[in-house]
Amino acid sequence: MAASGYSDLREKLKSMTPHRDDYENKCVDETSNGKHRKRKHRESDDDEYEHSDDSTDLREQEARRVRSSIQQKTIFTPEECALIEKKIDEVVAQAEAGHYREHTVDRAPLRNKYFFGEGYTYGAQLEKRGPGQERLYRKGEVDEIPSWVHELVINRLVTNGVVPEGFVNSAVINDYQPGGCIVSHVDPLHIFDRPIVSVSFFSDSALCFGCRFQFKPIRVSEPVFVLPVRRGSVTVLSGYAADDITHCIRPQDIKERRAVIILRKTRPDAPRLGSDSSLRASLAQKPGRLKAKRSHRKADPDAAHRYPPARANTPEVFMVQTKLRKVRQRTSISSDEKLVKM
């Protein structure tokens, strides 16, 4: 359900970037000979868009690589979709009533996520930002996969040869309101095995690859590849599409309510919150020189008022050493007198 105080992001985007609404015309296939103005892929935030024949060719090659590593099937009939959509509505109602565990539900403007089986930290939840920092929650901190997901969705995928039996141990329901989105990302390689399987419900949409989001105001760059996703369709990402290029859902691609069930398998060696406690304990036993690298939030509150060890690599030591060097350059008085003056 849409959070109060937020408006449809599509109107803001429409006035800022010229996007075409026809998904099919935006898809690049192996037979396309058309030339379009393109930008370099994966430029930094400070780079300008760059248009050239070379970059166009590179983007078209990349689009073919993306398309070749995606499989799509239409498995679920409209009647089956309606039944599953009713079950999704029941999940939403259960969450609104507070019947799920804390980390099962993750709410955001115009998009709610419901984790089952396994959940993980990401985005603003991370203590340290960046790829590889995601962690699974401790066992039992999210609810188990509902029986209807097994019976109505996973079993159908197994029957149709999409995944082997026993593969899925993580199911996430993303529920989008019109104008909702999810920013460009790669499903964490150290958390999830491949393939990544998703099933779409409620309405048609699109999955975009190679976009770059900018905010304040929100803008989305032109995709390398746009994949139409229809209600009842199954999308399977592996290889290049799963590992080597980001994917996202843009605000302008959610015109009606849309839900997707993402089915994955966690890696057996995926890091979990609390699993590195032994590492922290071993670091705490190292010499004081290493302890100085720990977060200031965990430091002794009185430490800033004491003269730190000369070799400790801390901002306080750097300031003291800098002052000492300046004093030595100005005067030849003794070291004791220097410290008194400081």
TrEMBL record:
Gene3D superfamilies attached to this UniProt entry: Alpha-ketoglutarate-dependent dioxygenase AlkB-like
EC top class named in words: oxidoreductase
Region: Disordered, residue numbers: 1-65, 284-314
TM stretches of this protein: none
Record-level Gene Ontology MF annotations: metal ion binding; mRNA N6-methyladenosine dioxygenase activity
Record flagged with keyword Nucleus: yes
The protein's Enzyme Commission number: 1.14.11.53
Gene Ontology terms: biological process: mRNA export from nucleus; mRNA processing
Residue stretches of biased makeup (Basic residues): 288-297
Keywords associated with the record: Dioxygenase, Disulfide bond, Iron, Metal-binding, Nucleus, Oxidoreductase
Residue ranges constituting the Alpha-ketoglutarate-dependent dioxygenase AlkB-like domain according to the UniProt record: 88-253
UniProt name for this protein: RNA demethylase ALKBH5
Encoding gene (name): ALKBH5
